[in-house]
Amino acid sequence: MYSGAKAGVVNFMRSIAWPYHHYDGIRCYAICPGTVETNLLNKEDWTSWPREYFTPISKIVSTVEMLVNGGDMKDSWGKEVKDGANFGLTVEVHMNNHYFREQPEYCDDAMKNLMISTGMENQAKRLEKKA
After folding, report:
1. CA geometry: angle at 76 spanning 75 and 82, to 5°?
2. How far apart are CA 87 and CA 13, in angstroms?
Protein backbone atom coordinates (compact mmCIF):
# COMPACT_ATOMS: atom_id res chain seq x y z
CA MET A 1 0.00 0.00 0.00
CA TYR A 2 2.86 2.37 0.81
CA SER A 3 4.39 2.01 -2.66
CA GLY A 4 1.02 2.51 -4.34
CA ALA A 5 0.41 5.69 -2.36
CA LYS A 6 3.89 6.98 -3.23
CA ALA A 7 3.27 6.30 -6.94
CA GLY A 8 0.00 8.23 -6.67
CA VAL A 9 1.78 11.23 -5.14
CA VAL A 10 4.49 11.16 -7.83
CA ASN A 11 1.97 11.02 -10.66
CA PHE A 12 -0.24 13.68 -9.09
CA MET A 13 2.77 15.99 -8.82
CA ARG A 14 3.64 15.33 -12.47
CA SER A 15 0.11 16.25 -13.50
CA ILE A 16 0.11 19.60 -11.69
CA ALA A 17 3.76 20.63 -12.11
CA TRP A 18 3.54 22.15 -15.61
CA PRO A 19 0.46 24.39 -15.11
CA TYR A 20 1.48 25.50 -11.62
CA HIS A 21 4.94 26.45 -12.86
CA HIS A 22 3.89 28.17 -16.07
CA TYR A 23 0.79 30.00 -14.81
CA ASP A 24 1.58 30.66 -11.15
CA GLY A 25 5.37 30.35 -10.84
CA ILE A 26 5.03 27.50 -8.34
CA ARG A 27 7.57 24.68 -8.51
CA CYS A 28 6.19 21.25 -7.51
CA TYR A 29 8.30 18.28 -6.46
CA ALA A 30 7.82 14.77 -5.13
CA ILE A 31 10.39 13.67 -2.56
CA CYS A 32 10.78 9.92 -2.09
CA PRO A 33 12.85 9.34 1.05
CA GLY A 34 14.67 6.15 1.86
CA THR A 35 14.39 4.53 5.29
CA VAL A 36 14.42 7.25 7.94
CA GLU A 37 14.34 6.34 11.61
CA THR A 38 11.17 7.93 12.98
CA ASN A 39 8.72 7.26 15.79
CA LEU A 40 6.78 4.96 13.47
CA LEU A 41 8.51 2.02 15.18
CA ASN A 42 9.97 1.66 18.65
CA LYS A 43 13.74 1.43 19.22
CA GLU A 44 13.65 -2.36 19.46
CA ASP A 45 11.82 -2.76 16.15
CA TRP A 46 14.31 -0.49 14.37
CA THR A 47 17.15 -2.87 15.32
CA SER A 48 15.90 -5.39 12.74
CA TRP A 49 16.79 -2.92 9.94
CA PRO A 50 20.41 -2.54 8.76
CA ARG A 51 21.38 0.89 10.10
CA GLU A 52 24.03 1.50 7.42
CA TYR A 53 21.20 1.95 4.88
CA PHE A 54 19.26 4.55 6.86
CA THR A 55 18.79 8.01 5.38
CA PRO A 56 19.69 10.76 7.85
CA ILE A 57 16.97 13.34 8.40
CA SER A 58 19.65 15.99 7.73
CA LYS A 59 19.88 14.71 4.12
CA ILE A 60 16.12 15.04 3.69
CA VAL A 61 16.34 18.61 5.05
CA SER A 62 19.24 19.59 2.77
CA THR A 63 17.42 18.16 -0.25
CA VAL A 64 14.27 20.12 0.60
CA GLU A 65 16.39 23.27 1.04
CA MET A 66 17.95 22.73 -2.41
CA LEU A 67 14.51 22.41 -3.99
CA VAL A 68 13.08 25.44 -2.17
CA ASN A 69 16.09 27.61 -3.08
CA GLY A 70 15.79 26.65 -6.76
CA GLY A 71 18.41 27.56 -9.34
CA ASP A 72 20.69 25.07 -11.06
CA MET A 73 20.67 21.65 -9.40
CA LYS A 74 22.74 18.49 -9.63
CA ASP A 75 21.97 15.03 -8.31
CA SER A 76 24.32 12.37 -6.95
CA TRP A 77 24.72 10.84 -10.42
CA GLY A 78 25.87 14.23 -11.72
CA LYS A 79 22.66 14.89 -13.65
CA GLU A 80 22.17 18.64 -13.93
CA VAL A 81 18.86 20.46 -14.04
CA LYS A 82 19.09 24.12 -15.03
CA ASP A 83 17.16 26.98 -13.45
CA GLY A 84 13.86 27.32 -15.27
CA ALA A 85 13.61 23.56 -15.87
CA ASN A 86 13.81 22.77 -12.14
CA PHE A 87 10.16 21.93 -11.55
CA GLY A 88 8.20 18.69 -11.62
CA LEU A 89 11.14 16.68 -10.32
CA THR A 90 10.78 13.38 -8.53
CA VAL A 91 13.69 13.22 -6.10
CA GLU A 92 14.67 9.93 -4.50
CA VAL A 93 16.72 10.42 -1.33
CA HIS A 94 18.69 7.43 -0.11
CA MET A 95 21.36 7.45 2.56
CA ASN A 96 23.47 10.56 1.79
CA ASN A 97 22.47 10.85 -1.86
CA HIS A 98 19.63 12.30 -3.91
CA TYR A 99 18.62 11.30 -7.43
CA PHE A 100 16.33 12.89 -10.02
CA ARG A 101 14.02 10.14 -11.29
CA GLU A 102 12.64 10.35 -14.81
CA GLN A 103 9.12 9.46 -15.85
CA PRO A 104 9.03 5.90 -17.27
CA GLU A 105 9.45 5.57 -21.02
CA TYR A 106 6.35 5.36 -23.18
CA CYS A 107 5.47 1.92 -24.52
CA ASP A 108 5.93 3.05 -28.15
CA ASP A 109 6.21 6.17 -30.33
CA ALA A 110 2.46 6.29 -31.00
CA MET A 111 1.74 6.52 -27.25
CA LYS A 112 4.49 9.10 -26.81
CA ASN A 113 3.03 11.26 -29.60
CA LEU A 114 -0.47 10.91 -28.18
CA MET A 115 0.60 11.89 -24.68
CA ILE A 116 2.63 14.86 -25.91
CA SER A 117 -0.16 16.11 -28.16
CA THR A 118 -2.75 15.87 -25.39
CA GLY A 119 -0.37 17.09 -22.67
CA MET A 120 -0.87 20.28 -20.70
CA GLU A 121 1.61 22.34 -22.72
CA ASN A 122 -0.16 21.64 -26.03
CA GLN A 123 -3.61 22.04 -24.49
CA ALA A 124 -2.60 25.45 -23.14
CA LYS A 125 -1.43 26.53 -26.60
CA ARG A 126 -4.74 25.41 -28.08
CA LEU A 127 -6.77 27.27 -25.46
CA GLU A 128 -4.70 30.43 -25.86
CA LYS A 129 -5.50 30.45 -29.61
CA LYS A 130 -9.23 30.37 -28.81
CA ALA A 131 -9.00 33.26 -26.32
Report:
1. 20
2. 10
Span 13-48, pLDDT tens digits: 999 999 999 999 999 999 999 999 988 889 899 998
The SS3 of residue 14 is: helix
**Domain of residue 65, CATH code:** 3.40.50.720
Residues involved in catalysis: 2, 6
Look at the chain and report how many structural domains it folds into.
1
Query: Is 109 inside any structural domain?
Result: no
Helices (H) and strands (E) in the chain, counts: 5, 5
**Predicted model pTM:** 0.85
Residue 125 lies in a domain: no
What is the domain range of residue 87? 2-104
